[in-house]
Please model this.
Amino acid sequence: MSAETGSGGLTEYIQHHLTHDTIQLGGGGFHVDSWLVGIALGLVFVLWFGFFARRATSGVPGKGQAFVELAIEFVDGQVKDVFHGDRRFIAPLALTIFMWVFLMNAMDLLPLDLISGVVKTTAGPEVAHHTFFRTVPTADANTTFAMSISIFFLIIFYSIKAKGGFGFTKELFTAPFHAEGTAFKILLAPFNLFLNLVEYLSKPVSLAMRLFGNMYAGELVFMLIAGLMMSWVTFLPGVVVNAGWAIFHILIIGLQAFIFMVLSVVYIAMAHEHH
Model:
């Protein structure tokens, strides 16, 4: 490894690539890069699938239409196995979650120095050194928690829809420990409420942290490999390791999108079912 890297260059390199393009909004930091990339990829998904949906034919489909149909049938099959109610909203939601998370995860496969390289070419090295832009929205906890909190509100909505407001509130105080007699019900009510709150709150936290942790770790490994390639001595081994990790990371990208989608549907299905 080069002397520059060994004397702290790699640490500065990683810190630079882990810094978000942040503005102050509402008294807190707003990550512009995660928001821009996430919105852009959401639009890509909508335009991509909408284009082939409008051009769909009943004959032999082209490659683009075949891929869209395959993705829709795959997601709808997963939803059908888990959710036994009306799927007209849940199936499109699951498809959106799967494709959107997959596209955001796939940004991790772009060259690490792509943005800084463009800035360095157009504006110079000094500007590039002070320019921050992270291209993987799911490696940002703000993104994953925003998505999981949205799922949390859907869980509450479907719980109230299935059980009614009174039934939902009653279940918070009477399950999972049931008791006969008013005195025992009152005694167990605080414990039931505590356990139910832990159960409800753990769902969005586990959803968000699982996706964030895997993508953040993957992004960090790419940075470490890129740090190895700073020296010409380790350039070829670094390329080999980087290619191997990228191939393996493709599996992680798809798997994490699938897990986030399936767990979201499972949690909504559990809330929708009557107890």
Summary: The first strand starts at residue 22 and ends at 25.
